[in-house]
Amino acid sequence: MKGRVLFGIFLIIISTACSSPAQTIVSKEVVFYGEGDYWNVSYIFNPELYEEKKVNWVEIESKELEFSQADINNIDIKFESRDGLITGNVGDMETSIEDNVISFLVGSVNLESYEQDQYKITIIFKDKQDFIKLQMNR
Question: Which SS3 state, helix, strand or coil, does residue 22 take?
């Protein structure tokens, strides 16, 4: 019995020593940003909006492609976090367009959001695919 208790304590110490450094929970609005070949992307995490509606904004800005309101239906995304994957068509989401920037709401992608988080987004439009890694602007 004493051996099991000591073994349990040993396991706890080892797992604590091997765990990753403390992560900082996002407490105010932050932007996770990345650039691809065709798009610049911002995932704007607002803890208050997330707490209230379980959504946050993504902004995609075309670097060279021009698009119209009708083209939104031809933009597909895959948005990946450490906790999950969201896929869909931008035309099916709540969107707004200003100049060459499309903003749309995405649902919850993490159980908890940290400043050290990294996201991946794939944007498919007009037979062109862009894979972009997002991290917090510092």
Answer: coil
pLDDT tens-digit map of 32-56 = 999 999 999 999 999 899 889 989 9
What does pTM read for this prediction? 0.80
The structural domains of the chain, with segments of one domain joined by +, span 24-136
Side-chain-facing half-sphere of 4: CA atoms under 13 Å: 1
Phi-psi region of 54 (alpha: psi -120 to 50; beta: other; left: phi over 0): left
Q: pLDDT tens for residues 71-125? A: 899 999 999 998 889 999 999 999 998 888 999 999 877 778 899 999 999 999 9
Name residues whose C-beta falls within 8 Å of residue 20's C-beta, 6 or more positions apart in sequence. Answer: none
CATH number of 24-136: 2.60.40
Nearest by Cα to 116 from 91, 86, 82, 87:
82
Q: What letter represents residue 128's amino acid? A: K
CB 104 within 8 A of CB 112: no
d(CA 90, CA 99): 16
